[in-house]
Specification:
Helix 1 packs across helix 6, helix 8 crosses helix 9 and helix 8 packs across helix 11. With 412 residues, the protein is mainly alpha-helical. The strands form four sheets. Strands 1-4 form a two-stranded antiparallel sheet. Helix content is 49%, strand content 6%. A hairpin with a 5-residue loop joins strand 2 and strand 3.
Amino acid sequence: MASVHWAADPKTGYTPTRNHGPRGMNATTLLIAQECANLKECRPGIAYLARKLKISERTVEYHLGMLREAGLLVYRTKGGRVAHGRDEASVYERTIPLAFDEAHGIRTIGEGVQRRPVGAADTARKALGKLARKAARKVRRPRRRTPVSGQGRCTLMEGGSTGTSSAGGSIPPSETKLASGHSSHPTPKKAHRGPQKLNKVGRRHQLARQLIDNVPWLSRASAPRIAWIARHCADAGWQWQEVQAAAEEAGPIDTMDSRRPSGLLAYRLKGAHELYASTKARHLMLTAWEDSRLRERIRHQGWDTPAAIPGQRTGAAAVAMDDIRAARQTQAVSAADLAAATEHPEGDTNIEALTRAEVLEHRAFAAQDPTYVRNLLQALGDRDARRLLTNKLVDQALVLLRLNTTELAPAF
């Protein structure tokens, strides 16, 4: 412990060479060395020292490293994980460094562990006695000193400890300033800061949230995942409309078909930020996508009547659907009227254009009136009628109407 106190002296002792951790030995180093000196076999566990001294394990590692670097501790066996997952503790030897003997003129005989002192220089005897007295005293943790203000303390309810009041010597403002309502303050108010600008990560998450809120087939996606997939587009300054246009350029995406929206978006956006690198290219792509969406909406609603093309839906079925929507808006027709509006043996009806509320209304009518199902079977066909009304409602209506099951066979 005398050599530890000598090494802890910043004037004559050890100087650490590492750039991190404590800048030198302090009271914590002396406490750890004192615990090591009290052990019969020097094998202190880091968790044991941290728990006993109420410090962190990293602090214990720093100070043990300084003791080893100063030559006060050396490994006898270095511990670690051995077979069968068992940890083995490190065993140390408490040593006196050679620099301590040279600084105090101590004469030794023997080599290695057999080396022992036989005398000391006369000029160093006083210093050795001082170090011995320090080593004999028990090192204690220094008490923290909290700064206390020299002024009297003040509480909210009982006032301060001083007898004078700080408001007694103040000068009241003039009547003119009170009457006008204007007064100057030595500390001017700071101007309100505007909205903070988003950084790169914030811009990515903002774009992801806009896509989830506005694109139907991305409503079930995770915002962090979408932010990572569209990171290149967000860094390039894309808008959410441009991202949707790039994703749906190869074809429209149905909400029911996108089981994994994030994976589908990653597949559709692969290389899009390099293909549409300029603002002009993105604008042309967005315009073409909006025109295609407009033409598709017009074709579905039957606003244009082009020449009949084999395999293409005609506008007569769309007219029937418009009649159904008008009947739903006025809410003044019965189920029989709605069924009559769907009867059109020549054309086909586009059930994809129906909203969820309209689909539920069709199914409610079908559950109440089996003839409504028969009319839809004649107007839409067996496949589309079952897609619209479900197999269960169609089969129940067929049983009630006692139709020939060979003509319209159930799907299951």
